[in-house]
Amino acid sequence: MQRQAIAVLALAGVFLAGYLTLYHYGYVGSIACGTGGCEKVQASRYAVFLGQPVALWGVGYYVSVAAVAIAGSVGAGQLSRWPTTALLALNGWGVVFSAYLTWLEVARIHAICRYCVVSAIAVAGLFALSAWDWRVRRRA
Amino acid sequence: MAKTVQKKSNAKFVGVLVLVAVAGVATLGYMVAQPRAGIRPVDPNLAPGTAEGYLAGNPAAPVQVIEFGDFECPACGQWSAVTEPDVRTRLISTGQISFRFYDFPLDMHKNTWPASNAAACASDQGKFWEMHDQLFATQDQWNGEATRDPSKVLQRLAQSLGLDMEKWQQCFDSQVHYPRIKANQAEAIRRGINQTPTFIIGSTVYPGAVPFDQFRKAVEDEAAKVAAATAPSKAASRAATKPPSKKNPF
Within 13 Å and on the Cβ side, how many CA atoms surround B115? Predict the structure, then answer.
């Protein structure tokens, strides 16, 4: 049940991060500096990490989480313990990185992008579900 | 029995996944397919403004182009590096367009006012466009993320352009051009511009970093409109295609 919820939430996250990636490359909206927080965040130097847009790393993260959660939700994978460990590790890292990005927005960029806030909440939700899954399976 | 319940649960799970995937793909596809928002005609009832911006090219060129830009805006910097060289060599230098840059310093950028000030002071010595290019090329050295006080970097840029530093510094410190920058900014606000860069090409407003092909097409469309409107008067047509004046710095 928890893994299924993680899969659905992560899949939604893929599209959220996908939107931000398309925005970064100028396929949606226009490449411009406006008065909104998202424009400022996307235009800042922190929008790129290790040579790739942060949003693209986000797509990779959500795809990985969704893939593991789906694998752990169907067939023999439902009884396996490795998806629990993998999800906890992935989402633990997700929470740390997401917290770092939120700190950058507040302390360095001085702007808040609402899509980033939604993503941060989604990552926190994924971590909470992973922890729940881990707890339930440890008791079983 | 348990297997049937499990199968139903799996089917429901897969159904929800498919639903989310279809909704996501449809939403993103719709967004990508949307025409770029904001391309609109200039309000024909808008009275001419008093701010002049900074001119490049023949002021009597058939198509008048205005850029509202912010020196600290990365999208403006990107346009300046990628597209503007082509605009200069293929449209301004050939006398097809006149090009005016209007400062539109956005509140979100901390060091954009000093940068506009540095460019205005360079303009006093006939080197606005050189400073304009330098500012965009070195954005990461003086922008709000790099420093709280950009004046040293701006001084260095002025020096590298061979400006009379005493005059430039005096101009920079006195902020004598702030009213001019403010007037350029006010012109943007008066025209309802809300992002940088924004271009007005003839009678149409194009928000965002317009790629060269779209830019040239817009200029050709405007030139065709002008030619159609002035067709009866050959003399006017000749005047409109005269070679660029000495004001063209490129």
Answer: 32
Q: Taking CA atoms, what residue in B is nearest to A12?
A: B20
Q: Does B32 touch chain A (CB under 8 A)?
A: yes
So what's the ipTM on this one?
A: 0.82
Secondary structure of residue B149 in the 3-state scheme: coil
Question: Is A31 an interface residue toward B (CB < 8 Å)?
Answer: yes
Q: Rounded to 5 degrees, what angle do the CA atoms A66, A120, B15 make?
A: 30
Looking at residue B130, the DSSP 8-state letter turns out to be H
- Cα distance between residue B165 and residue B156, in whole Å: 10
pLDDT digits (tens, 9 = 90+) for B140-175: 899 988 889 999 999 999 999 999 999 999 999 999
DSSP structure class, residue A76 = G
Instruction: Choose the closest CB to A35 out of B25, B194, B208.
Output: B194
Say what the pTM is.
0.71
Q: Quick one: which H or E segment has residue A11? A: helix A2-24
pLDDT bin (cut points 50, 70, 90) of residue A34 is: confident
CB-based contact B72:B139 (threshold 8 Å): yes
Q: How many residues does chain A have?
A: 140
